[in-house]
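If you are new to this repository, start here. Below is one unmodified record pulled from the training split, so you can see the exact layout before writing a loader.
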Amino acid sequence: MEKSKLDTLASVPNIALFYGFIVLFCVITLVIVRAADPFNFRAPTDQMLIMAFKQHSALFEDLRQKKASHEKVEQAKLTALPGILGIGAGWNGVIRFVYAEGGLLAVGSGWAKGIEYIPGDYQKEGDIRPELDDARKLPEGVYLREIEPHWFIFYQRDN
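And here is the target side for that same chain:
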């Protein structure tokens, strides 16, 4: 009888160690999922992006012109746009201001949301939608919501 009490007491540290590994695994998983944001919880709302554009429209236009002419964009101007992650330019003159992005792998499924300047036919660049707040439910593709002529909110999902 004494032996079973000793066996029980000896297994307490093993159980604590087991639960410790479970908690550690859950914390690491949570950190990875939060950082990768595959479900786009960090995506700004359409209204937030529209307000950012309206408040800084002259700066957006200045940065667009600099990027289109391949001038170097000063970091100070970029940081004047709150929440922006970066700017990219396409071969067709499209300029993207990325505000949020996520995905689990460097190559593979992911998403991005932000503001986009489209100089030409916007219908070739994506599907027009009245709102993009629930765009994570849409299939892969590029979706647009017009802010004003040539300026759009974009949401892109890749698989």
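Two things worth knowing about this chain: The beta strands are 86-89, 95-103, 110-117, 127-128, 141-148, 151-158. The first strand starts at residue 86 and ends at 89.
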